[in-house]
Specification:
The chain is an all-alpha fold. The chain contains seven helices and two strands, in the order H-H-H-H-H-E-H-E-H. A two-stranded antiparallel ribbon has the order 1-2. Helix 2 runs antiparallel to helix 3 and helix 3 packs antiparallel against helix 4.
């Protein structure tokens, strides 16, 4: 055990595993591939193909634990998150156009694929939060930045939390999911400006998607 009395999130710790984030990215890629042709960005293979290529590159460079930061790895990771965000925004825009366009869209089809876009939005912002907080997972493992972008409840709970606790990808996914459902912070507070902007944008996209789809579905059913 380390003699450093500081909590785990403030000191150097073992690097975080890669697979939780890789699994989430793979789910987002699969959702983009499964979107119906009329709701998918075109050419429909382009963005999923680029996402898959970047995912493979990131995993090959650092497959098991994120224990180092290279000059190419972090730009690849951020680029992957950006591509996922572009694909999700593009799909959402096509969905909105389909909602108000002419022609009949079955409510079940509408709700199913809106849910897929919503889920991808949650994954995208979970990746952004995970990559951005205190410089990313490798920087957090080094424990060199004591100023968090997100204040998790465990950081202020003292002896109620294991000494070695530090946020992992699932904590950022939970943050993104609750922000997309409650449209506001729940048990995790944004501390930096970019974190507040990110949560604001995610809430706005989630709220717009839910309101538009529900309104349209009710109108179609009625």
């Amino acid at each position: 055990m380390s003699s450093d009395a500081r909590p785990g999130w403030l000191r150097r710790t073992e690097a975080e595993q890669r697979w939780p984030a890789a699994l989430a990215i793979a789910v987002a890629v699969a959702v983009h591939l499964l979107l119906p042709a009329d709701l998918a960005p075109r050419p429909r293979w382009l963005l999923p193909g680029l996402e898959a290529a970047l995912l493979i590159s990131v995993v090959v460079v650092n497959p098991l634990r994120i224990n180092r930061e290279t000059r190419i790895l972090r730009p690849l990771s951020i680029g992957l998150a950006a591509l996922l965000g572009v694909a999700t925004a593009w799909s959402a825009a096509l969905l909105v156009r389909a909602l108000f366009g002419q022609g009949h869209i079955a409510p079940s089809h509408l709700l199913l694929w809106a849910a897929a876009i919503w889920l991808t939005n949650v994954i995208v912002f979970a990746l952004w939060f995970w990559e951005g907080d205190r410089g990313g997972p490798a920087a957090r493992a080094e424990g060199s930045n004591p100023h968090p972008d997100f204040l998790f409840a465990q950081m202020t709970a003292g002896d109620l939390v294991p000494r070695d606790w530090e946020p992992g990808f699932f904590d950022y996914f939970y943050l993104s999911f609750t922000n997309a459902t409650a449209f506001s912070p729940t048990d995790t507070l944004p501390m930096s400006t970019w974190a507040k902007v990110g949560m604001l944008v995610e809430s706005a996209v989630s709220l717009a998607t839910v309101l538009l789809v529900v309104a349209r579905a009710v109108n179609v059913i009625g």
